[in-house]
Design a protein that fits this description.
2 domains, 3-stranded antiparallel sheet, Arc Repressor Mutant, subunit A, 3-stranded mixed sheet, single chain, globular, alpha+beta
């Protein structure tokens, strides 16, 4: 995975490149799956923002499009770096294992349907997670 310049990304979005923000972005960049606040905190070594600060930070980073919030139906928010290429997730409804799905074939079809709508002509964003049973849980 290419390492993105987090300071530059923050400055382009008019956010200060604080030590805490840089550390959180490094954690999210290094992980292969979305993390909740507690998981993010366990990966932070040099800085330890409290939960309120961390939630506000994630809200700011999500609002400007640096990270995205994902609902994995586990009663808490998960976060990941905004991907360089669009992807979605398959989530095991039993053990919560997560696997990325690359590409948006289905979303492209939905976009064509939206264009045919009486009231809409395009989408501005989408969220798409699939819930299934992984092979281990199915057996």
């Amino acid at each position: 995975m290419n390492q993105r310049d987090h300071k530059k990304i923050l400055r382009e979005k008019k956010l200060k490149a604080t030590k805490s923000r840089l550390a959180v972005l490094q954690v999210l960049e290094s992980q292969r799956q979305p993390l909740d606040i507690e998981a993010i905190k366990t990966h932070l070594t040099d800085t330890r923002p409290n939960n309120v600060t961390l939630y506000r930070m994630m809200e700011d980073l999500s609002r400007v499009g640096i990270v995205r919030q994902i609902d994995l139906r586990q009663g808490r928010a998960f976060f990941e770096m905004m991907p360089l290429e669009d992807h979605h997730h398959i989530v095991c409804a039993s053990c919560n294992k997560i696997e990325d799905i690359h590409g948006c074939i289905l979303v492209d079809e939905i976009e064509r349907t939206i264009k045919k709508s009486k009231n809409f002509d395009s989408s501005i964003d989408h969220v798409f997670e699939i819930f299934a049973l992984c092979k281990a849980c199915k057996n």
